[in-house]
Every structure is written in C-alpha cells, then in structure tokens.
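subagent[fold] <- orchestrator: predict structure for attached chain, return tokens only, no commentary.
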Amino acid sequence: MSATVRINPDTHAKLKALCDQTGETIPTVLDQAIEHYRRQRFLEDCSQAYGKLRADPKAWQEVLAERAELDGTLSDGLDVVVTSKTKTKRTSKSR
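subagent[fold] -> orchestrator:
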C-alpha cells in the first residue's frame, strides 16, 4: 500500500541527504526512522510506568517481593558455554 505524506521542505532535504548518504530509498529510511521512534516511545512509556510504580511504596514492595520469589528459577544445573558469537551450548555442571 502506498500513501502520500506531506513534509516540509527542510525535512525532505534532510531525508534526501540521509538517502544519499546511506544509499537507501526514501521509504526504507522512513521505515527505519519510524521504527526507531516507535521503540523510543515504548521505552519512554515503560520508564514512566516504572516511575509511577516506584512512587507507590506498597506496589513497589510487591514487585520486589515477586522478583525475589522468582530469583533463581532458571537455575537448572546447566552452565551456558559460548561457542561462537551467535551460538551457545548448555552443558551439565561438573560435580
């Protein structure tokens, strides 16, 4: 699907310069910019939500208690050994 979006001339010039710099198309650069902005907003929203949670001492204590309860639940007796930059192998701990 294609849509027309109006942007001011200065923004278009910056967009064109980015395309010239990267060799990417305008739609690709816009896709990447929007995804970056979406992720930034998500993290800002999460940060704000955690700020509100921490401002409520009772709610924050409940979070800390839940974390403490879950702490160590992934201890399954296996060590993680890195075998390359992208692969990991789980092995039994030596006794």
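orchestrator: received. Logging for downstream: The first helix runs from residue 9 to 22. The CA atoms of residues 7 and 13 lie 10 Å apart.
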